[in-house]
Amino acid sequence: MPNVIELKAVELDYPLLDAEDRSFRKALFGGASARGYKAIRALSGVTLQVESGERLGLYGPNGSGKSSLLRVMAGIYPPSHGHIEVRGRTAALLGASAGANMEASAYENICTLLRIGAVEPTVDRVREIWAWTELNEAYLGLPLRMMSSGMMMKVLVAVVTALDAEILLMDEWLGVIDVNFMAKAQARMDAFVGRAGALVLASHSYALLERTCDRIVHLENGRIESIVSRSAGTLSEEPRIAAIA
Amino acid sequence: MTFTWAEQSRRMALASHLSWSDIRLRYTRAVLGPWWITLNVLLMVGGIGFVYSRLFGVPITQFLPFFAVGIVMWTFFVSTVSEAAYALIGGASYVKDRGVPPEVFIWQTVIRNLMILGHTVPVAIVALLVFRQGSVAGAAMAIPGLILFVLSTAFLAMIVAPACARWRDLIRIIESSMFLLFVISPVLWDLSIAKSDNAQFLRLNPMLHLLEAWRHPLMKGEMDWTALGVSAAVTALLGLGALYSRSRLKYAAFWI
C-alpha cells in the first residue's frame, strides 16, 4: 500500500504569545524583550507513515501532542524542522465547534462545510447527509445554536465523512455522541476508509481506538512512545520506533 | 504548498460563497434585504450633500455628486481594511479546526465589500445623472484609476489581516488611523476649494492620488496623469507588501 502521509523527524515549536508578544508597540519600541518569544516543543522527532486504507489512532494524555500532530498533517501548522509529505486531499474535523456558524441554519452550515471540502452542495446530497443523522426534519431550517452539542456533532460527522477526501483527520469527537449512534458513525468511517482513504483519529480513550484503528501511536510529551499494530486480529506492540527509523 | 490555479480558484470560490452567505445572513430578516445599504447611503449622501454644499458655499449640483462618488469608494476602502483586521480572528475555527487556508478569509472580506459596493454604486450613478455631472467618456477614463483603487484596497487588506492577527494592538491603531486618513483625504472636501497654497502639502497623502486618479477624469472629463502615476506606484508597492504578507500566512494558525 502506498503511504499517504509521511513524516520524517518532524519537530514543532509552538509559539506561546502572551500579551506583551502581541503588542505591536512593544515590538517596535520594546527593545530586547520584543525579540524571541517563548515557544513550547509540541512535537519532537516524529517519524511516521500512514498507508492508504489505514486507520491510525493517536493516543496520549492532554498536551501529549495529538492535536498538534493532526494539525501538522492537515497542513495547518508548518513543522519547525523535519519533513512532511501528504498525498491527497485532507478533510479535518478537529475542534469541538469545528467551524460551524451558530446563527446560520443547519442547512446553510452543511452547504458551507461541503464547499469547504470542495463538494458542490446539491439538495440531494444535503438530504442524504440529513437522513443519515436521523435528526428531526424541523431542525434543518433552524439556527444551529438550537441543537445540542451531540446533535451538532452528528451533523458534522455526517458531513465530513461525505467529503471527497483521501485522508480524514479527526480529534476527540465521539465523546458527545450516544452509544447507538457510535456504531453507525464507525460504519460510516469504515466506508470512508474503504474508498481507499485513510483515517487518523485522536482520542483519550484507548478502548475506542482499539475498536476503530489498525495501529495506535502512543504519544507522550510530543514524542512517540510506542506504536501498537493489529496483526491477525489482535493488537501487538511494534519494535521501538528507534529501531524502525 | 505549491501554487496552482485550480487551488487558487477553489479558494476564491469558497471566499465568494462565504461572502454571499454573510450578506444573506445579515439582511435575511430585513424587508429590503441588502438594499438597506443602498437606502442608508442615499440618506447620508442626501443629508451631507445638502448641509455641506451650503457650508462650503458650493452649488449642490456640483458638491453632492462629487461627495457621492467619493464616499461610496471611501466606504469600500475603510470597511475592507477595518474588517480585514478581524478577518483571520473571525475565521479562527475554520482555519484551526477544518484546515481552511487563512487566505480565504481575507478574500472573503474583500469580496463581501465588493458585493456591498455593488449596492452603493447605484447611489453615485443616480447622483451623477440627476445633477448632470460627469460623462460617458469621463467614466471610461476613470476605469484604470478605479481598478488601482480596488487593487490597493485588496492588497492593504492582505497586509493588515495577518499583522493584526499577530499584533492585536494594531487593530486599534488601524481603526484610529482610518479616521485620521479620512480627515486628510479629499472625500468631503476638494483641494480646489482651498484658499491658500498652504494646503498643497496634502498632496503628499497617497490616498489623495488614489481618489483623484479616477474622480478627476470622472468629474472633469480629463485624465490626471500625476494621480494615476502615483496610484500605480502605490498599488505596486502595496502589491509587494501583500505578497510578503501572504507568505507569512502559513504561521497564522499559531496567532489565532
Describe the structure.
The complex is a heterodimer of chains A (245) and B (256). Chain A is an alpha/beta fold and 245 residues long. Chain A has a single domain, classed as P-loop containing nucleotide triphosphate hydrolases (Rossmann fold, 3-Layer(aba) Sandwich), CATH 3.40.50.300. Chain A is 31% helix and 30% strand. Chain A has 8 helices and 10 strands. In chain A, the strands form 2 sheets. Chain A has a 7-stranded mixed sheet with strand order 5-6-7-3-8-9-10, with helices on both faces. In chain A, helix 3 packs parallel to helix 5. Chain A is globular, with a radius of gyration of 20 Å. The two termini of chain A are 19 Å apart. Residues 239-245 of chain A have low confidence and may be disordered. With 256 residues, chain B is mainly α. Chain B has one domain (29-255). Chain B contains 10 helices and no strands. Chain B has helices at 5-27, 35-56, 60-90, 92-98, 103-130, 136-166, 169-184, 206-220, 225-248, 252-255. In chain B, helix 3 runs parallel beside helix 6. The two termini of chain B are 20 Å apart. Classes of the chains: A alpha/beta (245), B mainly alpha (256). At the A-B interface, helix 1, strand 5 and helix 3 of A face helix 1, helix 4, helix 7 and helix 10 of B.
Instruction: Tell me the domain tally of chain A.
Output: 1
Query: Over the alpha carbons, how many angstroms does the gyration radius of chain A reach?
Result: 20 Å
Provide the spatial order of strands within the biggest beta sheet of chain A: 5-6-7-3-8-9-10
Biggest β-sheet description of chain B: none
- Mean pLDDT rating of chain A: 83
Number of strands of chain A: 10
- Would you tell me the structural class of the helices and strands of chain A? alpha/beta
- In this structure, how is the largest beta sheet of chain A organized? 7 strands, mixed
Low-confidence stretches of chain A: 239-245
What would the average pLDDT of chain B be, to the nearest integer?
92
Reported by name, the CATH topology of chain A is Rossmann fold
Note the overall shape of chain A: globular
- CA radius of gyration of chain B: 19 Å
| SS element count, helices of chain A | 8
